């Protein structure tokens, strides 16, 4: 039976688009479902500030009346301008293990991109770096995190069959929280504090707004992440959105800031209890009991695993050991709170400066994910 591709054009179809992922992975012990309401907001131009500089459409694949796949087509104009590219992104891609389905879905994105003058297709990527990105290619037997993609092993085979090639890889680490910090790590951290006249700052809830620390944190992330693959600077609208959405949920004990002698922010580390198992129990829904599982993980009975959400260091302080100060502060907190393991966020495989920051932990690389790329214009050569 032929595969029919249909552009999402109603709220009901968007609901189907979101729920397809839940159905495809409902029996998988490693997949972590997104919250349904969060996904509705992500795909809404009225709710997602990324639409200030992005455009998107969403497609469903049908075999008869049965939905067999989904994909989002996205153009991030800000990223394209920054990196001097003409790329269409594919994201939120899921499909049954039939070659004709993935071919039809990605073909729809390719045509959509060509109609808008794009010269290459890349993904899986979201609207921005704050969305999940990268197709899982190693670590299928590892529990996912709330900020990453889980997919079946056959996805990679489909991408390669369709002529997509590796564009970038990210690696992830499982980190064992030590019983105590190594003496050498402590000494080095104290030397760095003194040498660069730095101090560790513990954030108070009132200071997020009164002293503008929410803004300072995301300004620093913008500066630190600017050179990274495909990054587009967060706009003020996005920053306001993230401050409102995420900072109220963070246990400030699990946030570490480093400032210079003039109270300028030079490094930030934000972590939180893993919500993976809570999200699995919630099954993508806040009601009737999803909220309880999430609140329990955040505030009542914390899991043994934490997620390292964001780590950023001002460019002029990178390669000076400043990121070690974050864990000089945070590891004792993790110990007191009973955490045994940490999950790093995806890090570009070539970013050795970031990977070197795990010196306080026993770190094991246990996942790898990949962005793929294919040129859309015959004979077109990419500019370096």
Task: Give a quick rundown of the structure.
The chain has 384 residues and is α+β, with helices and mostly antiparallel strands. It folds into two domains: 3-170 and 371-375, Gcn5-related N-acetyltransferase (GNAT) (Aminopeptidase); 175-368, Gcn5-related N-acetyltransferase (GNAT) (Aminopeptidase, 3-Layer(aba) Sandwich). Helices cover 34% and strands 26% of the residues.
Explain this structure.
- With 384 residues, the protein is α+β, with helices and mostly antiparallel strands.
- It folds into 2 domains: 3-170 and 371-375, Gcn5-related N-acetyltransferase (GNAT) (Aminopeptidase), CATH 3.40.630.30; 175-368, Aminopeptidase (3-Layer(aba) Sandwich), CATH 3.40.630.
- It has 13 helices and 14 strands.
- Strands 1, 2, 3, 4, 5, 6, 7, 8, 9, 10, 11, 12, 13 and 14 form a 14-stranded mixed sheet that branches.
- Strand 2 and strand 3 (66-76) form a beta hairpin.
- Helix 10 packs antiparallel against helix 11.
- The radius of gyration is 21 Å and the shape is globular.
Question: What's the layout of helices and strands?
Answer:
Blueprint: E1 3-7, H1 11-24, H2 36-42, E2 54-63, E3 66-76, H3 77-83, E4 87-95, H4 99-115, E5 120-123, E6 135-138, H5 154-161, E7 165-176, H6 183-195, E8 199-201, H7 207-210, H8 213-225, H9 236-246, E9 255-259, E10 265-273, H10 276-282, H11 290-300, E11 305-313, H12 322-337, E12 341-343, E13 347-348, H13 352-355, E14 362-375
